[in-house]
Design goal:
Immunoglobulin-like; 4 domains; Pectate Lyase C-like; eleven-stranded parallel beta sheet; mainly beta; eight-stranded parallel beta sheet; 500 residues; 35% strand
Amino acid sequence: MKYKNFIRKALIYSGNPMKQLFFFLLLFSCVSTSAQVFQAVVATDGSGTYTTIQAALNACPDNVRSIVFVKNGIYNEQVTVGSSTVASAKLISLIGESANGVIITHSQSRAASGSPTFEDVCTVKIYAKDFYAENLTVQNTAGNTGMAEAMYTAGDRQTFKNCRFLGYQDTYRSRKATRGYFENCWLEGATDFIYAGGINIFDNCTINSVSGGCATAPEDADVSISKTATVCGKFIRVGFFFRNCNLTANSNVAAGACYLGRPWNTTSGSIYLNCKLGSHINAAGWQAWGGNETTASFAEYNSMDVNGNPVDVSGRISWSFQLPKADVDNLMTTTHIFSLENGTTVYNPIPLCVAPASPVIISLAPSSITWNKVDSISGYVVLKDGNYLTAVTDTTYTDKSGISGVYSVKSIGLFGQLSKASSIPTSVENPVETTVTATMVNKIIYLHQTASIQLYSTTGKIMGSSENCDTYSVKDFSKGIYLLRIKDSNGRIRTQKLIF
Protein backbone atom coordinates (compact mmCIF):
# COMPACT_ATOMS: atom_id res chain seq x y z
CA MET A 1 0.00 0.00 0.00
CA LYS A 2 2.82 2.44 0.80
CA TYR A 3 4.28 1.96 -2.70
CA LYS A 4 0.87 2.73 -4.25
CA ASN A 5 0.86 6.07 -2.41
CA PHE A 6 4.24 6.93 -3.91
CA ILE A 7 2.96 6.08 -7.39
CA ARG A 8 -0.21 8.12 -6.84
CA LYS A 9 1.84 11.17 -5.80
CA ALA A 10 4.12 10.75 -8.80
CA LEU A 11 1.14 10.74 -11.09
CA ILE A 12 -0.24 13.86 -9.39
CA TYR A 13 3.01 15.59 -10.32
CA SER A 14 2.80 14.35 -13.92
CA GLY A 15 2.83 17.96 -15.05
CA ASN A 16 6.18 18.48 -13.34
CA PRO A 17 8.78 16.06 -14.79
CA MET A 18 11.38 16.80 -12.11
CA LYS A 19 9.01 16.07 -9.24
CA GLN A 20 7.73 12.97 -11.02
CA LEU A 21 11.30 11.71 -11.45
CA PHE A 22 12.02 12.41 -7.78
CA PHE A 23 9.11 10.28 -6.58
CA PHE A 24 9.91 7.36 -8.87
CA LEU A 25 13.56 7.42 -7.77
CA LEU A 26 12.40 7.45 -4.17
CA LEU A 27 10.10 4.50 -4.86
CA PHE A 28 12.96 2.59 -6.50
CA SER A 29 15.18 3.36 -3.53
CA CYS A 30 12.60 1.96 -1.10
CA VAL A 31 12.14 -1.21 -3.12
CA SER A 32 15.89 -1.73 -3.53
CA THR A 33 16.81 -1.28 0.11
CA SER A 34 14.07 -3.68 1.21
CA ALA A 35 15.24 -6.43 -1.13
CA GLN A 36 16.08 -9.64 0.70
CA VAL A 37 18.30 -12.61 -0.13
CA PHE A 38 15.61 -14.99 1.11
CA GLN A 39 11.95 -14.86 0.24
CA ALA A 40 11.33 -15.92 3.85
CA VAL A 41 13.21 -16.95 6.98
CA VAL A 42 11.42 -19.51 9.14
CA ALA A 43 12.14 -19.78 12.87
CA THR A 44 10.13 -21.42 15.64
CA ASP A 45 11.20 -18.73 18.11
CA GLY A 46 9.73 -15.89 16.07
CA SER A 47 13.10 -14.46 15.00
CA GLY A 48 12.30 -15.00 11.32
CA THR A 49 9.50 -13.76 9.07
CA TYR A 50 7.40 -16.90 9.65
CA THR A 51 7.13 -19.49 12.41
CA THR A 52 5.95 -22.35 10.16
CA ILE A 53 7.34 -23.64 6.90
CA GLN A 54 3.89 -23.99 5.37
CA ALA A 55 3.08 -20.32 5.94
CA ALA A 56 6.36 -19.31 4.31
CA LEU A 57 5.73 -21.50 1.26
CA ASN A 58 2.17 -20.24 0.92
CA ALA A 59 3.53 -16.69 0.61
CA CYS A 60 5.92 -17.54 -2.23
CA PRO A 61 4.87 -16.25 -5.67
CA ASP A 62 4.43 -18.41 -8.75
CA ASN A 63 6.95 -18.79 -11.57
CA VAL A 64 9.93 -17.15 -9.83
CA ARG A 65 12.61 -18.83 -7.75
CA SER A 66 11.90 -18.37 -4.03
CA ILE A 67 14.63 -19.28 -1.56
CA VAL A 68 13.19 -20.08 1.87
CA PHE A 69 15.70 -20.40 4.71
CA VAL A 70 14.75 -22.49 7.76
CA LYS A 71 16.59 -21.92 11.02
CA ASN A 72 17.40 -24.83 13.31
CA GLY A 73 14.34 -26.09 15.16
CA ILE A 74 11.69 -28.81 15.30
CA TYR A 75 8.76 -28.07 12.98
CA ASN A 76 5.74 -30.16 13.91
CA GLU A 77 3.74 -29.77 10.72
CA GLN A 78 2.72 -31.33 7.44
CA VAL A 79 4.09 -29.37 4.49
CA THR A 80 2.51 -29.32 1.02
CA VAL A 81 3.27 -27.47 -2.19
CA GLY A 82 0.42 -27.86 -4.70
CA SER A 83 -2.02 -30.75 -4.62
CA SER A 84 -2.70 -34.09 -6.29
CA THR A 85 -5.21 -32.40 -8.61
CA VAL A 86 -3.51 -29.02 -9.21
CA ALA A 87 0.27 -28.82 -9.48
CA SER A 88 1.90 -25.70 -8.07
CA ALA A 89 3.74 -23.17 -10.26
CA LYS A 90 5.97 -22.17 -7.35
CA LEU A 91 9.72 -22.63 -7.82
CA ILE A 92 10.90 -23.41 -4.31
CA SER A 93 14.33 -23.81 -2.77
CA LEU A 94 14.01 -24.95 0.84
CA ILE A 95 17.33 -24.46 2.63
CA GLY A 96 17.91 -25.59 6.20
CA GLU A 97 20.50 -24.21 8.58
CA SER A 98 21.75 -27.78 9.17
CA ALA A 99 20.58 -31.27 8.26
CA ASN A 100 20.43 -32.44 11.86
CA GLY A 101 19.11 -29.17 13.24
CA VAL A 102 16.10 -28.58 10.95
CA ILE A 103 13.54 -31.33 11.58
CA ILE A 104 10.15 -31.39 9.83
CA THR A 105 8.17 -34.01 11.69
CA HIS A 106 4.77 -35.67 11.76
CA SER A 107 3.52 -38.92 13.33
CA GLN A 108 0.74 -40.76 11.51
CA SER A 109 0.30 -44.07 9.72
CA ARG A 110 -2.50 -45.17 7.44
CA ALA A 111 -3.51 -48.19 9.50
CA ALA A 112 -3.34 -46.60 12.93
CA SER A 113 -5.26 -43.49 11.86
CA GLY A 114 -7.74 -45.21 9.56
CA SER A 115 -6.60 -42.95 6.74
CA PRO A 116 -7.05 -44.45 3.28
CA THR A 117 -4.25 -42.62 1.45
CA PHE A 118 -0.56 -41.94 1.83
CA GLU A 119 -1.19 -38.27 1.07
CA ASP A 120 -3.15 -37.89 4.32
CA VAL A 121 -0.31 -39.14 6.49
CA CYS A 122 2.77 -37.96 4.58
CA THR A 123 4.92 -35.30 6.28
CA VAL A 124 6.08 -33.41 3.16
CA LYS A 125 4.46 -33.54 -0.30
CA ILE A 126 5.75 -31.56 -3.26
CA TYR A 127 3.47 -31.30 -6.31
CA ALA A 128 5.75 -28.89 -8.18
CA LYS A 129 8.62 -28.97 -10.65
CA ASP A 130 12.21 -27.93 -10.04
CA PHE A 131 12.03 -28.13 -6.26
CA TYR A 132 15.40 -27.94 -4.49
CA ALA A 133 16.12 -28.82 -0.84
CA GLU A 134 19.31 -28.78 1.21
CA ASN A 135 20.30 -29.37 4.84
CA LEU A 136 17.11 -30.61 6.46
CA THR A 137 15.40 -33.68 7.93
CA VAL A 138 11.93 -34.97 7.01
CA GLN A 139 10.50 -37.68 9.23
CA ASN A 140 7.38 -39.66 10.08
CA THR A 141 7.68 -41.03 13.62
CA ALA A 142 4.67 -43.40 13.51
CA GLY A 143 7.07 -46.36 13.75
CA ASN A 144 6.06 -49.95 13.11
CA THR A 145 2.36 -49.22 12.71
CA GLY A 146 1.93 -49.66 8.97
CA MET A 147 2.47 -47.46 5.95
CA ALA A 148 3.63 -44.03 7.10
CA GLU A 149 5.26 -41.87 4.45
CA ALA A 150 7.65 -39.05 5.31
CA MET A 151 8.40 -37.63 1.84
CA TYR A 152 6.49 -37.72 -1.46
CA THR A 153 7.92 -36.21 -4.65
CA ALA A 154 5.12 -35.69 -7.17
CA GLY A 155 6.78 -33.23 -9.54
CA ASP A 156 9.54 -33.55 -12.10
CA ARG A 157 13.16 -32.51 -11.50
CA GLN A 158 13.26 -32.49 -7.71
CA THR A 159 16.75 -32.28 -6.23
CA PHE A 160 17.93 -32.98 -2.68
CA LYS A 161 21.35 -32.40 -1.16
CA ASN A 162 22.49 -33.33 2.33
CA CYS A 163 18.97 -34.19 3.50
CA ARG A 164 17.67 -36.94 5.79
CA PHE A 165 14.43 -38.93 5.35
CA LEU A 166 13.45 -41.01 8.37
CA GLY A 167 10.61 -43.47 8.86
CA TYR A 168 9.78 -47.14 9.13
CA GLN A 169 7.51 -48.38 6.34
CA ASP A 170 7.31 -46.51 3.01
CA THR A 171 9.52 -43.61 4.14
CA TYR A 172 10.02 -42.15 0.66
CA ARG A 173 7.56 -42.36 -2.24
CA SER A 174 7.98 -41.01 -5.77
CA ARG A 175 5.46 -40.52 -8.54
CA LYS A 176 5.59 -42.15 -11.97
CA ALA A 177 7.01 -40.11 -14.86
CA THR A 178 9.00 -37.83 -12.52
CA ARG A 179 12.74 -37.54 -12.02
CA GLY A 180 14.57 -37.00 -8.77
CA TYR A 181 18.19 -36.71 -7.67
CA PHE A 182 19.66 -37.24 -4.20
CA GLU A 183 23.23 -36.26 -3.30
CA ASN A 184 24.79 -37.15 0.06
CA CYS A 185 21.41 -37.92 1.64
CA TRP A 186 20.36 -40.35 4.39
CA LEU A 187 17.28 -42.52 3.79
CA GLU A 188 16.11 -44.75 6.61
CA GLY A 189 13.38 -47.31 7.26
CA ALA A 190 12.50 -50.99 7.41
CA THR A 191 9.80 -52.13 4.97
CA ASP A 192 9.94 -50.92 1.35
CA PHE A 193 11.21 -47.58 2.59
CA ILE A 194 12.14 -46.36 -0.91
CA TYR A 195 9.24 -47.18 -3.16
CA ALA A 196 6.84 -46.47 -6.07
CA GLY A 197 7.57 -44.96 -9.51
CA GLY A 198 9.66 -42.38 -11.26
CA ILE A 199 13.35 -42.27 -12.15
CA ASN A 200 15.50 -41.56 -9.12
CA ILE A 201 19.28 -41.46 -8.81
CA PHE A 202 20.90 -41.68 -5.37
CA ASP A 203 24.56 -40.63 -5.37
CA ASN A 204 26.83 -41.07 -2.33
CA CYS A 205 23.85 -41.67 -0.05
CA THR A 206 23.42 -43.79 3.07
CA ILE A 207 20.56 -46.31 2.92
CA ASN A 208 19.98 -47.36 6.53
CA SER A 209 17.77 -50.25 7.66
CA VAL A 210 16.26 -49.98 11.15
CA SER A 211 14.80 -53.50 11.06
CA GLY A 212 14.48 -56.46 8.72
CA GLY A 213 12.83 -55.82 5.37
CA CYS A 214 13.46 -54.52 1.86
CA ALA A 215 15.17 -51.25 1.06
CA THR A 216 13.27 -50.73 -2.19
CA ALA A 217 9.91 -51.65 -3.71
CA PRO A 218 9.85 -50.13 -7.20
CA GLU A 219 6.61 -49.82 -9.13
CA ASP A 220 6.15 -50.13 -12.91
CA ALA A 221 8.82 -48.22 -14.79
CA ASP A 222 7.35 -46.06 -17.53
CA VAL A 223 10.55 -46.35 -19.60
CA SER A 224 12.98 -49.18 -20.22
CA ILE A 225 16.24 -49.80 -22.03
CA SER A 226 15.76 -52.50 -24.65
CA LYS A 227 17.73 -55.68 -24.17
CA THR A 228 19.06 -55.27 -27.72
CA ALA A 229 20.79 -52.07 -26.58
CA THR A 230 22.59 -53.76 -23.67
CA VAL A 231 25.69 -55.92 -23.53
CA CYS A 232 24.08 -58.06 -20.84
CA GLY A 233 21.13 -58.86 -23.12
CA LYS A 234 18.57 -57.87 -20.47
CA PHE A 235 15.79 -55.32 -20.34
CA ILE A 236 16.74 -52.59 -17.89
CA ARG A 237 13.68 -51.14 -16.23
CA VAL A 238 14.52 -47.52 -15.42
CA GLY A 239 13.59 -46.91 -11.80
CA PHE A 240 15.88 -46.55 -8.78
CA PHE A 241 19.64 -46.20 -9.28
CA PHE A 242 22.03 -46.25 -6.31
CA ARG A 243 25.58 -45.18 -7.07
CA ASN A 244 28.46 -45.24 -4.59
CA CYS A 245 26.04 -45.61 -1.69
CA ASN A 246 26.55 -47.21 1.72
CA LEU A 247 23.91 -49.70 2.87
CA THR A 248 24.02 -49.72 6.65
CA ALA A 249 21.82 -50.97 9.50
CA ASN A 250 21.16 -50.24 13.15
CA SER A 251 23.21 -52.34 15.54
CA ASN A 252 20.22 -54.50 16.52
CA VAL A 253 19.50 -55.63 12.94
CA ALA A 254 20.59 -59.24 12.42
CA ALA A 255 22.91 -60.36 9.65
CA GLY A 256 20.98 -61.37 6.55
CA ALA A 257 17.73 -59.78 7.76
CA CYS A 258 17.42 -57.28 4.90
CA TYR A 259 17.17 -57.28 1.12
CA LEU A 260 18.08 -54.86 -1.64
CA GLY A 261 14.52 -54.82 -2.88
CA ARG A 262 11.43 -56.58 -4.11
CA PRO A 263 9.22 -55.91 -7.17
CA TRP A 264 5.97 -54.12 -6.33
CA ASN A 265 4.91 -54.49 -9.95
CA THR A 266 5.85 -56.34 -13.11
CA THR A 267 8.20 -53.96 -14.98
CA SER A 268 10.01 -52.49 -12.00
CA GLY A 269 13.69 -51.84 -11.50
CA SER A 270 16.29 -51.25 -8.79
CA ILE A 271 19.99 -51.13 -9.63
CA TYR A 272 23.00 -50.80 -7.29
CA LEU A 273 26.33 -49.59 -8.70
CA ASN A 274 29.59 -49.54 -6.73
CA CYS A 275 27.75 -49.76 -3.41
CA LYS A 276 29.03 -51.01 -0.06
CA LEU A 277 26.69 -53.55 1.54
CA GLY A 278 26.63 -54.31 5.25
CA SER A 279 26.25 -57.83 6.64
CA HIS A 280 22.51 -57.19 7.11
CA ILE A 281 21.98 -57.74 3.37
CA ASN A 282 20.88 -61.33 2.74
CA ALA A 283 23.05 -63.47 0.46
CA ALA A 284 20.08 -63.89 -1.91
CA GLY A 285 20.07 -60.13 -2.39
CA TRP A 286 16.44 -59.76 -3.42
CA GLN A 287 12.96 -61.00 -2.46
CA ALA A 288 10.26 -62.34 -4.77
CA TRP A 289 6.79 -60.79 -4.80
CA GLY A 290 3.87 -62.57 -6.42
CA GLY A 291 5.67 -63.44 -9.63
CA ASN A 292 6.45 -59.83 -10.53
CA GLU A 293 10.14 -60.67 -10.42
CA THR A 294 10.02 -62.56 -13.71
CA THR A 295 9.90 -59.28 -15.68
CA ALA A 296 11.69 -56.98 -13.24
CA SER A 297 15.23 -55.60 -13.51
CA PHE A 298 17.08 -56.15 -10.26
CA ALA A 299 20.79 -55.80 -10.88
CA GLU A 300 24.16 -54.92 -9.34
CA TYR A 301 27.60 -53.87 -10.41
CA ASN A 302 30.73 -54.11 -8.26
CA SER A 303 28.95 -54.61 -4.94
CA MET A 304 31.41 -54.45 -2.03
CA ASP A 305 31.47 -55.15 1.67
CA VAL A 306 32.05 -52.36 4.18
CA ASN A 307 35.82 -52.70 3.72
CA GLY A 308 35.64 -52.33 -0.05
CA ASN A 309 36.18 -56.01 -0.87
CA PRO A 310 34.03 -57.66 -3.57
CA VAL A 311 30.83 -59.25 -2.24
CA ASP A 312 30.25 -62.94 -2.96
CA VAL A 313 27.21 -62.83 -5.28
CA SER A 314 27.14 -66.56 -6.03
CA GLY A 315 24.10 -66.97 -3.77
CA ARG A 316 22.03 -64.26 -5.46
CA ILE A 317 18.46 -65.16 -6.43
CA SER A 318 18.28 -66.50 -9.97
CA TRP A 319 16.28 -63.72 -11.62
CA SER A 320 18.66 -60.95 -10.51
CA PHE A 321 21.76 -60.27 -12.55
CA GLN A 322 25.18 -58.64 -12.54
CA LEU A 323 25.78 -55.80 -14.97
CA PRO A 324 28.87 -55.68 -17.21
CA LYS A 325 31.05 -52.58 -17.00
CA ALA A 326 30.18 -51.59 -20.57
CA ASP A 327 26.49 -51.21 -19.69
CA VAL A 328 27.32 -49.21 -16.58
CA ASP A 329 29.66 -46.88 -18.45
CA ASN A 330 27.42 -46.38 -21.48
CA LEU A 331 23.89 -46.57 -20.08
CA MET A 332 24.06 -45.58 -16.40
CA THR A 333 25.25 -41.99 -16.70
CA THR A 334 23.08 -39.26 -15.18
CA THR A 335 22.55 -37.61 -18.56
CA HIS A 336 21.45 -40.81 -20.27
CA ILE A 337 19.22 -42.05 -17.46
CA PHE A 338 17.29 -38.79 -17.18
CA SER A 339 17.06 -38.34 -20.96
CA LEU A 340 14.98 -41.51 -21.23
CA GLU A 341 11.86 -39.60 -20.15
CA ASN A 342 10.99 -38.60 -23.72
CA GLY A 343 9.54 -35.17 -24.33
CA THR A 344 10.65 -33.75 -21.00
CA THR A 345 12.84 -30.78 -20.16
CA VAL A 346 16.55 -31.58 -19.86
CA TYR A 347 17.43 -32.34 -16.25
CA ASN A 348 21.05 -31.95 -15.18
CA PRO A 349 21.02 -31.86 -11.35
CA ILE A 350 24.70 -32.42 -10.62
CA PRO A 351 25.72 -28.75 -11.17
CA LEU A 352 22.88 -27.72 -8.85
CA CYS A 353 24.54 -29.66 -6.05
CA VAL A 354 27.90 -27.94 -6.47
CA ALA A 355 28.41 -25.44 -3.67
CA PRO A 356 29.41 -21.90 -4.67
CA ALA A 357 32.85 -20.57 -3.82
CA SER A 358 33.38 -19.61 -0.20
CA PRO A 359 34.01 -15.96 0.67
CA VAL A 360 37.33 -14.94 2.16
CA ILE A 361 37.36 -12.60 5.14
CA ILE A 362 39.36 -9.52 4.12
CA SER A 363 39.20 -7.44 7.28
CA LEU A 364 37.84 -7.49 10.80
CA ALA A 365 37.12 -4.32 12.76
CA PRO A 366 35.69 -3.87 16.26
CA SER A 367 32.18 -3.58 14.81
CA SER A 368 32.26 -5.08 11.31
CA ILE A 369 33.63 -7.78 9.05
CA THR A 370 34.32 -7.51 5.32
CA TRP A 371 34.88 -10.22 2.73
CA ASN A 372 35.58 -10.52 -0.99
CA LYS A 373 32.86 -10.50 -3.65
CA VAL A 374 31.89 -13.93 -5.03
CA ASP A 375 30.47 -13.95 -8.54
CA SER A 376 27.21 -15.58 -9.70
CA ILE A 377 25.56 -15.86 -6.30
CA SER A 378 22.50 -14.31 -4.66
CA GLY A 379 24.06 -13.20 -1.36
CA TYR A 380 25.79 -14.26 1.83
CA VAL A 381 24.86 -15.86 5.14
CA VAL A 382 26.61 -14.46 8.20
CA LEU A 383 27.02 -16.83 11.14
CA LYS A 384 28.03 -16.15 14.71
CA ASP A 385 29.48 -19.03 16.73
CA GLY A 386 28.24 -21.34 13.96
CA ASN A 387 24.61 -20.16 14.13
CA TYR A 388 22.63 -18.15 11.57
CA LEU A 389 22.79 -14.41 12.22
CA THR A 390 21.58 -12.73 9.03
CA ALA A 391 21.71 -12.77 5.23
CA VAL A 392 23.03 -9.86 3.19
CA THR A 393 23.76 -8.93 -0.41
CA ASP A 394 26.66 -6.63 0.44
CA THR A 395 30.20 -7.80 1.26
CA THR A 396 30.27 -6.31 4.73
CA TYR A 397 28.33 -6.76 7.94
CA THR A 398 28.16 -4.49 10.96
CA ASP A 399 27.16 -5.88 14.33
CA LYS A 400 25.78 -2.95 16.33
CA SER A 401 26.55 -4.77 19.57
CA GLY A 402 30.21 -5.08 18.56
CA ILE A 403 32.10 -7.99 17.10
CA SER A 404 32.39 -10.73 19.71
CA GLY A 405 32.46 -14.45 19.28
CA VAL A 406 33.50 -16.31 16.12
CA TYR A 407 32.04 -15.01 12.86
CA SER A 408 32.00 -16.77 9.50
CA VAL A 409 30.36 -16.22 6.12
CA LYS A 410 28.83 -18.52 3.51
CA SER A 411 27.94 -17.74 -0.10
CA ILE A 412 24.36 -18.41 -1.24
CA GLY A 413 24.01 -19.87 -4.74
CA LEU A 414 21.27 -18.89 -7.17
CA PHE A 415 19.21 -21.90 -6.07
CA GLY A 416 20.02 -21.32 -2.41
CA GLN A 417 23.00 -23.68 -2.26
CA LEU A 418 25.31 -22.85 0.62
CA SER A 419 29.08 -22.79 0.39
CA LYS A 420 31.41 -23.93 3.11
CA ALA A 421 32.01 -21.36 5.81
CA SER A 422 34.60 -18.68 5.12
CA SER A 423 38.03 -20.25 4.85
CA ILE A 424 39.67 -17.61 7.07
CA PRO A 425 37.88 -17.55 10.44
CA THR A 426 37.20 -14.25 12.11
CA SER A 427 38.75 -13.51 15.46
CA VAL A 428 37.21 -14.37 18.81
CA GLU A 429 35.92 -12.09 21.53
CA ASN A 430 37.55 -8.62 21.76
CA PRO A 431 39.55 -9.09 18.56
CA VAL A 432 42.93 -7.41 18.32
CA GLU A 433 44.68 -7.21 14.97
CA THR A 434 48.39 -7.74 14.65
CA THR A 435 50.47 -4.61 14.28
CA VAL A 436 52.68 -6.28 11.67
CA THR A 437 52.25 -4.59 8.30
CA ALA A 438 53.48 -5.38 4.81
CA THR A 439 54.73 -3.30 1.92
CA MET A 440 55.63 -4.45 -1.58
CA VAL A 441 58.48 -3.27 -3.80
CA ASN A 442 59.31 -4.89 -7.16
CA LYS A 443 57.00 -7.81 -6.37
CA ILE A 444 58.72 -8.57 -3.06
CA ILE A 445 56.64 -8.38 0.12
CA TYR A 446 58.50 -6.82 3.06
CA LEU A 447 57.19 -7.40 6.60
CA HIS A 448 58.11 -4.90 9.30
CA GLN A 449 58.45 -7.75 11.77
CA THR A 450 58.92 -11.52 11.42
CA ALA A 451 55.57 -13.29 10.98
CA SER A 452 53.84 -16.09 9.13
CA ILE A 453 51.95 -15.29 5.94
CA GLN A 454 49.47 -16.91 3.59
CA LEU A 455 48.57 -15.53 0.17
CA TYR A 456 45.04 -16.22 -1.19
CA SER A 457 43.28 -15.60 -4.47
CA THR A 458 39.98 -13.73 -4.23
CA THR A 459 38.15 -17.06 -4.59
CA GLY A 460 39.76 -18.31 -1.38
CA LYS A 461 42.38 -20.60 -2.94
CA ILE A 462 45.69 -20.55 -1.09
CA MET A 463 48.44 -19.51 -3.52
CA GLY A 464 51.48 -19.53 -1.25
CA SER A 465 52.69 -19.38 2.35
CA SER A 466 55.75 -18.92 4.48
CA GLU A 467 56.48 -19.37 8.18
CA ASN A 468 58.49 -16.91 10.31
CA CYS A 469 59.63 -14.74 7.45
CA ASP A 470 60.25 -11.04 6.86
CA THR A 471 60.29 -11.10 3.03
CA TYR A 472 58.34 -13.07 0.42
CA SER A 473 58.72 -12.99 -3.36
CA VAL A 474 55.66 -12.94 -5.63
CA LYS A 475 57.61 -12.55 -8.88
CA ASP A 476 56.23 -15.84 -10.20
CA PHE A 477 52.62 -14.84 -9.58
CA SER A 478 50.43 -13.46 -12.36
CA LYS A 479 48.97 -9.97 -12.12
CA GLY A 480 45.78 -9.65 -10.10
CA ILE A 481 44.21 -9.02 -6.71
CA TYR A 482 45.36 -11.13 -3.78
CA LEU A 483 44.63 -11.32 -0.07
CA LEU A 484 47.57 -11.46 2.33
CA ARG A 485 46.97 -12.97 5.76
CA ILE A 486 49.59 -12.06 8.38
CA LYS A 487 49.86 -13.92 11.70
CA ASP A 488 52.29 -12.79 14.36
CA SER A 489 53.96 -14.83 17.12
CA ASN A 490 51.09 -14.07 19.51
CA GLY A 491 48.51 -15.52 17.10
CA ARG A 492 47.07 -12.10 16.21
CA ILE A 493 45.92 -11.80 12.61
CA ARG A 494 45.24 -9.16 10.00
CA THR A 495 44.40 -9.40 6.33
CA GLN A 496 45.21 -6.85 3.64
CA LYS A 497 44.62 -6.60 -0.08
CA LEU A 498 47.52 -6.72 -2.54
CA ILE A 499 47.33 -5.63 -6.17
CA PHE A 500 50.25 -6.30 -8.50
